[in-house]
Amino acid sequence: MHFDLADLRLFIHIAESPSLTQGARRAHLSPASASARIKALEGQLDSRLLYRDSRGVELTPAGQKLLQHARLVMRQVDYLKSEFTEYGTDSAGHIRIFANTTAVTEFLPEVLAGFLAQRPGVTVDLQERLSRDIVRGVLDGSTDMGIIAGPVRAEGLQVLHFSTDRLLLAVPVGHPLSGEPTMTLRQTLAYQHIGLHEGSTLLTFLRDQVEKLGGQLSLRIQVSSFEAVCRMIEAGVGIGIIPESAARRHSRTMQLALVELDEPWAVRERSILVRELEALPGSVRALIATLVPGDQVRVER
């Protein structure tokens, strides 16, 4: 069985687009030519890959399976190209990263700034995703690496633990809770919270914990950054649960009181997820080495 790489790339474009026409446009083909190529691919596999109707296209179960394999194949092709680039093994290439809210907003921007400044031939696509989507993305090859916090079930992946992330309760100075040494999540539910935007990993995680308690998280306002959360807290709008790194930094310039959370999930290990570290292109391995000094990495399979 012979696969044309152009057909696999076309199929990925169509699968990631709302319609065959838009997928064909991304592949620089006419809709008729793209349709003919997909039909030929279906004939070769003896399987229907797409459901077509007036609303667009939808993958069949066989299409879902092909998409997973096609992404992995094309990712390896991209790796091969980057390994043989004239710029060297770690000075050029494209890196896609799926990461949680804390990584995207707290420590990755600074790390990536220095990393990219030294490697003008490297580009990065950084996307904030939920933990389950990060794991799925690494597994199916739609991202080179993932960064998460907390326990992870990732069979078939390498998990590189590199630091810890502690969640704290932040309240305004003088708030009734400001003098408490510790608080449970249940105790905080009597107060209105300041939350991050919908789709953020931290908000989703906290809602899951509240649901396990049978309670309800009362959100007074949702904002887009930890700095905005802290400014709202300082103004007395509500209280909030945020990472210690953000809490400590903003408490130096804002009137905030920090209270430890008496919860088993409050201390979470940060981890990088990859399919196989040694199989990654040089640019991705170099970024991981920047994030995680070799003597600090614990690899779990």
From TrEMBL:
Give yes or no: UniProt keyword Transcription.
yes
For this UniProt record, the keywords arranged alphabetically read as follows:
DNA-binding, Transcription, Transcription regulation
**Protein origin, superkingdom:** Bacteria
- Give one Pfam hit by family name: HTH_1
Q: Which GO terms describe its cellular component?
A: cytosol
Q: Which GO terms describe its molecular function?
A: DNA binding; DNA-binding transcription factor activity
Q: SUPFAM superfamilies under this entry?
A: Periplasmic binding protein-like II, Winged helix' DNA-binding domain
- This protein's record includes keyword Transcription: yes
Per UniProt, residues of the HTH lysR-type domain are 3-60
Q: Which family does it belong to?
A: Belongs to the LysR transcriptional regulatory family.
Protein name in UniProt: LysR family transcriptional regulator
**What is the originating organism of this protein?**
Stutzerimonas stutzeri KOS6
